[in-house]
Write a structure and sequence with these properties.
Length: 255
């Protein structure tokens, strides 16, 4: 059985890790390189690095920061924000990213999903879907949660899976930063709609929230509760394991 994954998320603005609530009210958390090293050592399965203002500022992701993080971690690194072309994807992969996360570009140029999957492999292409429940449905947002599209999340998930996306990163804007639990309804809807792996994001407040999500999907993204040291990756994994969810634990080698 495939192991479930615990993935810390580094939202980066102006070269610093930040965290907000519902994509606003950002507060400084610290240096991305040092934080990435900490999570790598603490048993995280992967890391997600999101340059959260790159799209709205219409600039490329900070390659120097990505490169600095990649040199210090030994787990898969997914990078997103400000990607505008296949060349940008290539630059990020060369800088040390293992995967790229596409949101705004994917919505505005869906054909690039297929082209990127063909050129780099589906395993490298993560489609980030920022969703908000309003008007009795889940709608997709772009530009760091600032622009509502008329795309419905389930329809969009089916489309990107058909185009060759290897994974979905689904963030509930309604739950983001509130620590009141993931939006389990959208996870159910998307799990029924697509066969590719799904990462749940937005709302984790304790390990039991993570259990709830991982009983439905493949991985859970965590930010606030880890950044604020309310819990650790290892503690979350132990709780998940107690609920019979398969987890990867770091083992210490002895001579």
């Amino acid at each position: 059985m495939l192991k479930r994954r615990i993935i810390p998320c580094l939202d980066v603005k102006d070269g610093r890790v930040v965290k907000g609530i519902e994509f606003v009210a950002l507060r400084d958390i610290g240096d991305p390189v040092e934080i990435a090293k900490y999570y790598d050592a603490s048993g995280a399965d992967e890391l997600v690095f999101l340059d959260i203002t790159a799209s709205t500022e219409r600039r490329q992701t900070m390659l120097d920061v990505v490169s600095a993080v990649a040199r210090k971690v030994f787990i898969p690194l997914t990078v997103g924000g400000g990607i505008r072309s296949l060349e940008d994807i290539s630059s990020l992969l060369k800088a040390g990213a293992d995967k790229v996360s596409l949101n705004t570009l994917a919505v505005e140029s869906p054909d690039l999903i297929k082209r990127a999957a063909e050129r780099f492999g589906s395993q490298c292409i993560v489609i980030a879907i920022d969703v908000k429940f309003e008007d009795d449905d889940y709608f997709v947002y772009t530009y760091g949660g600032k622009n509502r599209t008329e795309l419905r999340a389930v329809d969009w998930a089916k489309q990107v899976a058909a185009l060759g996306a290897g994974e979905l990163l689904v963030t509930s804007m309604n739950q983001d930063g509130k620590q009141s639990g993931y939006d389990l309804r959208i996870l159910d809807l998307l799990r029924d709609a697509v066969d590719i792996p799904i990462i749940a994001s937005g709302g984790a407040g304790n390990a039991n929230h993570v259990v709830d999500a991982l009983e439905k999907v493949d991985a859970a993204l965590l930010a606030s509760i880890l950044h604020d040291r309310k819990t650790t990756v290892e503690e979350v994994k132990h709780v998940c394991s107690e609920h019979n969810l398969p987890m990867r634990f770091v083992t210490t080698q002895t001579d």
